[in-house]
Amino acid sequence: TTITPTSTTIETSKTAYFYIGKEITKAKYDELVKEGKNPPEPIENFPTSKIVEERDSDGKLTYVITYTYDTIFIDNKPVRTWEATKVDQTNGKIEEFIYGKGDAEIILDSEGRVKGGKGDYLSLESEAKSFRTRYRVQTFFAEAERVLTEFQGLAYLPTLFMDEDSLLEWRDNVDRAFATLYLGTEYWASAI
Asked: What tens digit of pLDDT does each residue of 82-126 get?
């Protein structure tokens, strides 16, 4: 018996306008038409993102692959690029990083090793590894920001080590130093 997982795909697209090697807005496109410059015809249903949900034979969600698309120009011609992550829904970890350009696509495992691909995929290895590194750095900083903003109780950590008066004096000194050294203004406190 062969068990075939099912998948659901959700795609978003737009109408894309190009002129002399770059993407332009509809307003700019209309302006060029009005001026008689004959820009290329707009491309309908130009993909911008795609989400693929893979399910096992029981219908349980196993993986989510999230694609984002971009356009670069090579020799004044638009070339599609895409980046994607495949996330295991049982543990929330990234299993694959996918990078594609034109007719080629490379797949890296979570450690950055090449798993395979299609077309001339090995030519994309350095770009794919760059995407993986950039993604991991952005994820790290997003998580750090989430921790610092979501768990505001950490702001009161100094109260474990200082009494309230010392803490208020320390905060006032920090405010004073910031105003004087960084803002270059004279420090003042509101009487309110």
From this structure: 999 999 999 989 999 999 999 999 999 999 999 999 999 999 999
pTM: 0.66
Amino acid, res. 61: L
Cα separations in angstroms, 163 against 166, 168, 175, 189 = 6, 9, 18, 22
Alpha-carbon distance of 172 to 178, in angstroms, equals: 10
Residue type at position 92: G
- Alpha-carbon span 179 to 187, nearest angstrom: 6
| Residue-level pLDDT at 1 | 42
Half-sphere exposure (CA, 13 Å, Cβ side) for 3? 7
What is the tens place of the pLDDT at every residue in 116-166? 999 999 999 999 999 999 888 888 887 777 666 665 554 555 555 667 777
* Alpha-carbon gap, residue 115 to 97, rounded angstroms: 10
Q: How far is CA 176 from CA 96, 166, 169, 179, 190, in A?
A: 49, 15, 10, 5, 13
d(CA 96, CA 109): 5
Q: Which residues pair with 46 in a beta bridge?
A: 14
CA nearest neighbour of 18 among 72, 68, 92: 72
Burial status of residue 53 (CB atoms within 10 A of its CB: 0-12, 13-18, 19 or more): middle
